[in-house]
Structure formats: C-alpha cells, structure tokens
Amino acid sequence: MKTWLRDLPKVELHLHIEGSLxxxxxxxxxxxxxxxxxxxxxxxxxxxxxxxxxxxxxxxxYQGMGVLHTEQDFFDLAMDYFAxxxxxxxxxxxxxxxxxxxxxxxxxxxxxxAGLERAMREAESRWGLSTALIMSFLRDRSADxxxxxxxxxxxxxxxxxxxxxxxxxxxxxPSKFAAVFERAKALGLPRVAHAGEEGPAAYIDEALDVLDxxxxxxxxxxxxxxxxxARLRASQMPLTVCPLSNVRLKVTKTMSEHPLPAMxxxxxxxxxxxxDPAYFGGGMLNNxxxxxxxxxWDRERFKTLAANAIDVAFMPETRRDALRQRLASC
Length: 330
Ligand code: ADE
Ligand code: ZN
Known about the structure:
By secondary structure, the protein is an alpha/beta fold. It is built from 17 helices and eight strands.
C-alpha cells in the first residue's frame, strides 16, 4: 500500500516554498551568503523544530529563510523541493511564497520571482512536474503594505496564478485585507486564504464573504459551526488540509484525533497537503502515509483525495484531463 501511495499521482496545493528549506540546504546557503545561524549543526536545527503553536513555528520559519538572498538561492530552494516531490510521486505543485518576508530583509521582489520561475520551468522539463505560483500576503503586517506589494508585483502578474493570505491568524481576520483582495479580483487574480487553522470558524465565513476566495487553506475549524459545514458542502469549497502540520503546531493533539475523517464524512471537498515539509515531518508522501497509519483508509479514499486536488488545481484543462486519466489507472 505504501508503494501504491508513492505511485499515486499526487497534487500539492498548499506548500510554502520557504517551508521546504531543509536544514542541510539552510547551512549550505548560510555558508554561501555569510549568514550566521543560531544552530551549530543540522541535527541541532531539527531538534529545535518542536513547536507549541503557529507563532512559535513562524519565528523559526522567518529566521530560517534569512539565508535566501539571491535568485540562485530561490532556484536552489525550489529545485531541492521539486526533486523530493517528484521522487514521492507528486505531479503538480502550487507553491506559495511570502514576498514581504524577503523584501523586509532587503531582497528585491524581482529576486524570488526570477529564481522560482526558472526552477518551475526546469522542474517541468526535468520531471514533467507542472506548477503554479501563489503570492501570499502576511496577515500580521498591515493591509497597506500588502496593497503596496500587490502594486509592485505588476510586472509579474502573468506569473502569478493566485494571491494568498498566511502567517499569524489569530487577531488578523480576513476582513483586514478586504481592499487588497478586491484589487486582486479587479486584476483578474484568483484568491485563496488560510482560514480556520488556529483562528475560528468565523474567519472561514469571512474569507468567503469578504475576500471571495476559491479555496480555503486548512479550514479545519469549520467543524465548530454546523451552518458553515453545510455551506462548504453545498459549494464544495476546497479545503487544503495539512494533517502533519496540524499535529506539529498543536492544532490537533495526534493524527488519530485529526478531524480529516469527520470532514470527509460531512461531504467536504478536502485535499491532502504538506504546508511546510521541512519543519513538519515530511512532504506529500509522509502526509498520505500518516493518514494510512492513523485511519486505515482504503485505496478509493486516497483516490478521492487525489482527485479532489486535481479538480481544483490551477492548471490547464488538458493537464487536468491527463492527470485524471493517470489516476483512473491506479
Ligand atoms: N506560513 C507558513 N506556514 C504557515 C502556516 N501553517 N500557517 C500560516 N502561515 C504560514
Ligand atoms: Zn500554510
């Protein structure tokens, strides 16, 4: 079954590329760029990845990405991840990145765009991996700053498949970014947002009502609200769930207590994703196998989850049809 899961064509819709930075590459880039790290060894870095909540993770996540300076760094970061993803049977990746977390360190917006774009093209030719790019705004910074980044990104709009919203959720409701998302909509950019990870179910409603998103990242808090469950079921709103992330950030205590089975029982359009694989115990395959071990799901259930992701991915219809055919033969 584990081999079958590896070979299942998997689509990753919720992946922070900065969260794919493994300690080995972090050390290599720190050396290359003369950046001091708070860890003496790779093992010490991994040992520090013991999180109490989302904020305690974000602190190390923003610190870790401080080694990324040049276009080549972003290229290397993405290629390192794409190689692992391809080896795990991932066939399409929607990578999100956080421009503000780089611009605030003096890295120009053009740098991640150039490095990631080159890696995305290389991944397509090397592994046949299709990709999409999501430019995310940091919700714990001001809406004015997000708006400014959106305007500065004008030369890259053709490269952006969607805008997103991430970082510290509690106290930073979706409505804070109403004007930014309205502008993105006017520009014709699709919108997604993290909601209901640590925040309440009401933030999911708000992301739908105010930001007009086409996907909710996480969304596990929806089970707190019957009316919201009915709404999400009726609209088949995609929820990009990240089980290992939820356990590592103490959103749920253990895998076996994870709300995924309940969400599926409610008829919700759920997908499985890895969020920040370098920090949370692995990529897509580890998330799939963790579900196998916790829930003993059969092949049909995993095929449904994989099919859900194919249904709602930002990809050309020809690619969608090809992936559906591949999945059908599994
Ligand atoms: N940025 C990177 N990972 C995140 C997560 N799990 N939640 C919110 N923001 C993030
Ligand atoms: Zn996320």
